[in-house]
Amino acid sequence: MSNLLIEIGNTALKAAWAQETTLGKTFRYQGEKYLDFILSLTRKEKPAVMVISSVYPFTGAEIELLEKECDKLLLLDQNHREMLLSHGLPSYLSYDRAAAIVAARHLFSGKGCTIVDLGTILSVDFTSPEGLYTGGNLSLGFRTRFKALSRYSRSLPLVDTPENPDLVGLSEKASMESGVVSGIIFEMEGYLNLHPENVVVFTGGDANYFAKRMKSSIFVICNLVLMGLALMAEEYVRKTEK
User: Fold this and answer.
1) Looking at 71, 77, 96, 206, which residue is catalytic?
2) How far, in Å, CA of 210 to CA of 184, rounded?
């Protein structure tokens, strides 16, 4: 039987079937009926382990329903912090950040990592060559910055993602485009310069957009969080079978 990995983030649900740590078909859902979408997946195939990382807490009734859809349910949300501690990570981390860290440590064992998730929130996390978590920062994501400019000013429009913004804008729209894009690039260059010896891993929806604009060598792994969830599922199986 395969495991089902699910990440419920701020704007979308991402899921994948996995055989141990090998990812299979992936899915993306954007909507409010995420529980119905999960059930549509489990009706086709019952997972051995269903891992759900969620920014939203589940109700008791929802948990009971999900438990019937799999052999083992591993719920990772703000009410279940045990897996963070078992991986040597602080309890304040969100599970998407934690899963990305777990995957990066596995893929680049023996090397320090700078892990950048470019999504709704921009997160930057650091690990040492020994695999220790050494801290991280959070700031507004790419499109979130455009939304904030428009929302918190009286005159600025909402700008779409620019394809080739100039370094310095020569119009209001161009100034917003270059300000946000250049701001994130300068921000990333500063973080990368903190640990130039580290392997740099970008993930998240805007990873490719910014990786090609950086001067440094970047690994882009779009399914890094799902890979981390697969590793957590395998650890959970080992522990529960003892």
Assistant:
1) 96
2) 8
